[in-house]
Write a structure and sequence with these properties.
heterodimer, A: 328 residues, mainly alpha, B: 190 residues, Four Helix Bundle (Hemerythrin (Met), subunit A), 7 helices
């Protein structure tokens, strides 16, 4: 543990926080633009060129808005719930290799904060902890809609955590390691998505549920339960929920690209660019789906999880197990 | 040095969280503190180099068990303070705490002087996950399988208890087929 290592880690953490907080802001802009173009509108246009400064305007608004703590809420829990959402999203990022190793001024930088050898398990586990944000926020608010949303958050997260875990199990069986870097290196010949297409589809569907994106946007379903757990929130506390949600979308895109889509390949500059391209496409895919698909009902969501996805995931694991056992 | 700092930090945080869990009269505080304490415990596994167990601690206890607790909490008004029927007795608390401390000292004192030897030392060149798997599927295979059967029993009994009135799904039934209990109908019938 030398000083250089500690300084390097702190710099990495600060860079990660700054980059992904900013990207979360840009994510809202991208989302509005993409949705607008798909619905033959222009989206935000007035603030700055092509509405680019809309993010700054939204940021100023969120930061300067009065932070209201309504009557009858459990104030300490109510205040801490948005922080949990944002914090767990960034904690999960500690074990994700965002780029391959590169050398900067003769110093080798490894763009991963903690290279633990159980990377996948850690990232998925900590992302699942993100459920406490909506859950505690909803339960601490003295509001019926918030409570319904909290109940949905608990059921959706617990159910789809099962699908995520089972879907990831078959790639893990093939690779024989839980480290995301090992998974990336395993795919140097062919991408995981060709040998595990079922697991890929299951993981992407579960990713929509875990981030609460549109086909499964039941936790804060605007037209049904107002804003769910966010109903009583205002100002930056409400904004923190969104930073957490968008950061989670980016991190789960990185995870999908690293596990299934070849990651950064051999670690060259082109490979790094390819990783960013894949992540950008996966993020766009989230928005595309939102523009194209309606929401499902809560009971359909549970039906999909327990009666369709989970049996398929288990069958996939059994088949993969036989293949691994008999073919080597 | 950093390990020591991390250990004392997380030890303090864990004890503080579980203290809140036990002492708070507010169900929501207790639940949040218990979840936080479960996460802080995983830090000890990470400090000891048992990454796999640390991640499993986070997933199983905070992600699954505590979330189910929270789900049960939905049926209460968790924003109100609980009025407990029994008043806590300081004498019982003090004596119980002292007894627990004494037990720890009695059991731990003879071992502290010796160097504690691991029954299953870490194999060099083998990852954490593999090491856990090897011990689990050789030495502890039978307890592992029995635990699996126990969970299966719990699951089946849960389904049996919950599934008694689940042979019709209200979502699939048309609206007018659902038996209505509004007052107008009752009036009309009478």
């Amino acid at each position: 543990m030398d000083v250089a290592f500690i300084i390097e880690t702190i710099i990495k953490i600060v860079v990660l926080l700054l980059v992904f907080s900013a990207l979360a802001g840009f994510g809202t802009y991208f989302e509005r633009k993409v949705l607008a173009f798909m619905q033959r509108r222009l989206g935000p246009m007035h603030v700055g060129p092509y509405g680019l400064l809309q993010i700054a305007a939204d940021g100023v608004k969120l930061f300067t808005k009065e932070d209201i703590i309504p009557q009858n809420v459990v104030a300490p829990i109510f205040k801490i719930a948005p922080v949990i959402t944002a914090a767990t999203a960034f904690m999960a990022a500690a074990a994700i290799p965002f780029l391959p190793e590169f050398t900067l001024f003769g110093y080798t930088v490894r763009p991963i904060i903690a290279d633990v050898n159980i990377g996948v398990l850690y990232v998925v586990g900590v992302m699942a902890i993100g459920l406490y944000g909506p859950l505690l926020g909803g339960m601490a608010s003295a509001n019926k809609w918030s409570l319904i949303s909290a109940a949905r958050a608990a059921s959706v997260f617990i159910s789809y955590e099962v699908v995520t875990g089972l879907a990831l199990l078959s790639p893990i069986m093939l690779v024989g390691s839980l480290s995301l870097i090992d998974m990336n290196n395993y795919q140097s010949d062919s991408w995981m998505v060709w040998s595990q297409p079922v697991a890929f589809v299951l993981f992407v569907i579960a990713a929509f549920a875990e981030t609460g994106r549109t086909p499964f946007h039941l936790i804060a379903n605007d037209h049904e339960i107002i804003d769910g757990f966010g109903t009583e929130y205002s100002g930056m506390r409400w904004g923190l929920f969104f930073i957490g949600e968008y950061a989670n979308m980016f991190f789960i895109s990185f995870l999908t690209a690293l596990i299934f889509l070849g990651g950064f390949g051999d670690g060259s500059f082109l490979g790094a660019l390819a990783l960013l391209g894949k992540v950008a496409f996966l993020f766009f895919f989230f928005l595309w789906t939102r523009a194209a698909w309606p929401d499902v009902r809560p009971d359909q969501l549970m039906w999909l999880c327990w009666k369709v996805l989970m049996p398929i995931a288990i069958l996939n694991i059994v088949v993969t197990g036989f293949v691994v056992m008999f073919k080597g | 040095m950093f390990e020591a700092i991390a250990f004392y930090l997380f030890a303090f945080l864990t004890i503080a969280m579980f203290y809140i869990t036990v002492m708070s009269k507010h169900a929501l505080y207790s639940m949040t503190a218990l979840a936080a304490g479960m996460i802080f415990i995983s830090a000890f596994f990470f400090i000891l180099g048992a990454d796999f167990l640390g991640a499993v601690q986070i997933i199983v206890y905070s992600g699954a068990v505590m979330a189910l607790y929270a789900f049960g909490m939905m049926f209460f008004d968790s924003t109100r303070e609980l009025k407990e029927k029994t008043t806590p007795s300081l004498l019982v608390f003090g004596l119980g705490g002292m007894a627990a401390l004494m037990t720890v000292i009695i059991v731990a004192a003879p071992i502290v002087s010796d160097n504690i030897a691991a029954a299953y030392p870490i194999v060099e060149g083998v990852g954490n996950t593999q090491a856990v798997g090897m011990v689990l599927f050789t030495k502890y295979l039978i307890p592992f399988e029995v635990a699996a059967v126990m969970l299966l029993v719990a699951m089946i009994s849960g389904i049996v208890l919950a599934g008694k009135k689940m042979d019709i799904s209200l979502t699939l039934v048309e609206d007018d087929e659902i038996p209505q209990h509004d007052k107008e109908k009752e009036k009309a019938e009478s």
